[in-house]
Amino acid sequence: MGIVLTVSCYIASFSPSIALFYSFIAHDPVRIILFFLGSFFWLVSLLISSLAWLGLSTVLPNTFLVSLGVCIVVQELSRVAYFMLLKKAQKGLNKITRHGQISVAPGVSDLHNARHMLALVCGLGMGVISALFYTMNAFATFAGPGTIGLPMALETGHIDSNRAGKYLPLCYVLSAILLTLFHVAWTIMVWDTCHKIGRFPTAFVPGAAAVVSHLFVAFLSSLNSRGFYILVFSVQFLVLLICIAYCNVIMGGTIQSFVTAIGQSFVDAFTLKQIRNFVEERKMRTQQRQAVPDEPMTERGGASDEPGTSNTVDA
């Protein structure tokens, strides 16, 4: 039963990531490379944050808040470093790609036009590896044996009233989904600042919003230990919607178009539009395979009355 729970938690946690990967990344080898490179940059930021925590723990008695702030700042700096790396790659590709010709790496050589899509790809890579590190220890414990929290309860003689209990797997699943989508939104916002910095007086606003929202979401997560699960997830979901709406504005959309898209998504979900489209496509393919091939250009009538004539029609 524990293995089934663990597998179910993994599937639920990374279903949105798999959908985004299949829709925007899987068909392009270059985007797959950038996806894993984003994961690598996040791992490097985690390593630097761990070293900073190790150094601070020898100086300060309580390093939680300081280490948390350092970790968030390092993660945002890793996004900036990733953008600078792709900018360098763009300059190199422009030297070997003539104007008006097809790029040797579509979607990378023209960073000005593809930066939002690349931000989604790279941010998804960061979000997936972040959610994986966040959940894998807990999910491994779910696999068994035993019940989470039981040894501590036996030692102390009482059960913590703030613990999630049987809803703990659900809390981890929701946290993983939110964390993945947050990283996508934060990457789009930070990269927009990196692209516009020095040219627009308000270029710093998206990057500052990403850092502030990152700090706020991390602070809310720390309240889970006090039992405010419903409040924390509700506020985090609201912040995520605001970040996505802001990213939509950054990419040229409007709030009205965002609200319309959300409404249409709910309609499509309730009417099972994706499933219906998939079934219709399968039917069309089946009909095309079963279609009768074109008849040869010959007359099917009986033999001609006139001798020496042929039933074949000259093309």
UniProtKB/TrEMBL annotation:
<feature type="transmembrane region" description="Helical">
    <location>
        <begin position="167"/>
        <end position="191"/>
    </location>
</feature>
<feature type="transmembrane region" description="Helical">
    <location>
        <begin position="6"/>
        <end position="25"/>
    </location>
</feature>
<dbReference type="GO" id="GO:0016020">
    <property type="term" value="C:membrane"/>
</dbReference>
<comment type="similarity">
    <text>Belongs to the APH-1 family.</text>
</comment>
<feature type="transmembrane region" description="Helical">
    <location>
        <begin position="203"/>
        <end position="222"/>
    </location>
</feature>
<feature type="transmembrane region" description="Helical">
    <location>
        <begin position="32"/>
        <end position="56"/>
    </location>
</feature>
<dbReference type="GO" id="GO:0007219">
    <property type="term" value="P:Notch signaling pathway"/>
</dbReference>
<dbReference type="GO" id="GO:0016485">
    <property type="term" value="P:protein processing"/>
</dbReference>
<feature type="transmembrane region" description="Helical">
    <location>
        <begin position="62"/>
        <end position="85"/>
    </location>
</feature>
<keyword id="KW-0472">Membrane</keyword>
<dbReference type="InterPro" id="IPR009294">
    <property type="entry name" value="Aph-1"/>
</dbReference>
<dbReference type="Pfam" id="PF06105">
    <property type="entry name" value="Aph-1"/>
</dbReference>
<keyword id="KW-1133">Transmembrane helix</keyword>
<keyword id="KW-0812">Transmembrane</keyword>
<feature type="transmembrane region" description="Helical">
    <location>
        <begin position="117"/>
        <end position="136"/>
    </location>
</feature>
<feature type="transmembrane region" description="Helical">
    <location>
        <begin position="228"/>
        <end position="249"/>
    </location>
</feature>
<protein>
    <recommendedName>
        <fullName>Gamma-secretase subunit aph-1</fullName>
    </recommendedName>
</protein>
<keyword id="KW-0914">Notch signaling pathway</keyword>
<feature type="region of interest" description="Disordered">
    <location>
        <begin position="284"/>
        <end position="315"/>
    </location>
</feature>
